[in-house]
């Protein structure tokens, strides 16, 4: 069975539901979790470099603060369930690549993540990191579908 799960989060409601379900899955199987948040790399261009640097630093600090809050929340939930959890914060222009690399580097044997259920134009414009991970990962991927709520531990053991 799976022993080490990579659990990416973006702080959304779908990710929150996936966290709850994944922690229950890890609890039922005795797996450890590595929580991951991938921050976007900031690319700012302006005629006034001094302004850009100040804004860049402020936005990055705000993004880091939010990311750390998401990851701390995951750690607290896992700890309350008796599941070993470490966290990782990365920056990348390509979150799906960062997710796959993090899973490989941490020797994870499963990636568990939410699907946001985007369709139509939104899916084309925003893309799907979950779909890209599914397409490119050599490691199995467990997808918690958009709007599926949270699974109970009994659902994983039956």
From TrEMBL:
InterPro entries: Rossmann-like_a/b/a_fold, Universal_stress_UspA, UspA. SUPFAM superfamilies: Adenine nucleotide alpha hydrolases-like. Gene3D superfamilies: HUPs. Pfam families: Usp (PF00582). Residues 1-145 form the UspA domain. Belongs to the universal stress protein A family. This is Sulfate transporter.
């Amino acid at each position: 069975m799976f022993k080490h799960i990579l659990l990416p989060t973006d702080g959304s409601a779908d990710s929150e539901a996936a966290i709850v379900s994944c922690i229950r899955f890890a609890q039922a199987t005795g797996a450890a979790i590595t929580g991951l948040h991938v921050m976007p790399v900031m690319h700012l261009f302006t005629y006034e470099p001094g302004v850009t640097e100040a804004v860049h630093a402020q936005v990055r600090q705000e993004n880091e603060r939010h990311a750390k809050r998401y990851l701390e929340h995951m750690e607290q939930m896992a700890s309350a369930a008796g599941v070993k959890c470490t966290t990782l914060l990365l920056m990348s222009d390509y979150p799906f690549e960062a997710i796959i690399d993090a899973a490989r580097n941490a020797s994870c044997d499963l990636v568990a993540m939410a699907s946001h259920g985007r369709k139509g134009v939104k899916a084309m414009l925003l893309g799907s990191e979950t779909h890209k991970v599914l397409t490119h990962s050599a490691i199995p991927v467990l997808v918690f579908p958009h709007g599926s709520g949270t699974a109970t531990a009994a659902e994983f053991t039956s």
